[in-house]
Amino acid sequence: MKNRIAFCLSDHTGVTVEAMARSVLSQFPAFEFSLIVLPFIDSPEKAQAAAARITATPDALAFTSVTDPTLRAILRESGVALFDLFELIVPAVESALGQAATPHGGQTHSMTHNYESRMDAVNFSLALDDGLQPQRLDQADLILVGVSRVGKTPTALYLALQYGLRAANYPLTPEDLAHPKLPEVLLANLPRLRALTISAERLAAIRQVRYPDSQYASQERCRAELAAAERLFKRHSLPVIDTTRMSVEEIAARLRH
After folding, report:
1. How many CB atoms lie within 10 A of CB 227?
2. Which band of pLDDT confidence, cut at 50, 70 and 90, is reported for residue 105?
3. Which percentage of the chain shows pLDDT scores above 90?
4. Domain boundary, last residue among 78, 110, 142
């Protein structure tokens, strides 16, 4: 497999251009790409420094979402192999809308959710992480349920930070799994519940990292817990997502819709 380096240049955090680069480069499985994000390129000096770093890297690719035309010109003039999000897409959008774009950095984030509401959602998810403060579950937009280490916490935090959703998570303990019904506090909020599951092999591998060679990490224990959880999910007709081969971003996107 051939190794290549790809730079992601942005005048803001770089989240957008990095996501674009990962999506595009995933279509070339013969190569293994290492991504380097260079955020906050908001001055000629920073653009020149970024260009110098890229040109000093053999066979590097560069993806950019820098909005300032002056800074983009500096990058182009350096001879960098540049894939420019704005120059490739914006002209087509301008044509469709019949209006010229007004370059302005950082607008992607202001278009998602109000910053304060997203931070409030993050604080909520942290406060109700791992079954804490169950008396507040009725304030949640979504409640993620599943056995330990199935991906509830990172998914809840991603939903909060990215989408501003007040996502709580509640772990199903061995005691919960021994009962024929979900805990009453969950049944009281049934429409908000979303279940996560995973393969026993993957769950055992995750738990093994946390608690090596423990009964908790054994495949037998994992299979038993997952089977009991799935019986509860089926009994209460919960929507279930299998997270075995999904990233947090994919899980969150499915939960959101």
Report:
1. 12
2. low
3. 69
4. 110
Phi and psi dihedrals of 61, rounded to 5? -105, 155
CATH of the domain at 200: 3.40.50
Tracing tokens 């304060």 back to the chain, one arrives at: 116
Q: Are residues 71 and 124 in the same domain?
A: no
Residues in the chain: 257
Tens digits of residue pLDDT in 80-99:
888 998 888 878 888 888 88
pLDDT interval class at 107 (50, 70, 90):
low
- Say whether 256 sits in a helix, a strand or coil: helix
Residue 139 has pLDDT above 60, yes or no: yes
Q: Which residues contact 129 (CB under 8 A, 6 or more apart)?
A: 153, 156, 168, 169
DSSP 71-123: HHHHHHHTT--EEEHHHHHHHHHHHHHTS-----TTHHHHTTS-HHHHHHHHH
What is the Cα–Cα distance from 157 to 164, expressed in whole angstroms?
A: 9
The pLDDT, as a whole number, for residue 117 is 87
Domain range holding 158?
115-256
Let me know: does 254 contact 241? Beta carbons within 8 Å: yes
What amino acid occupies position 252?
A
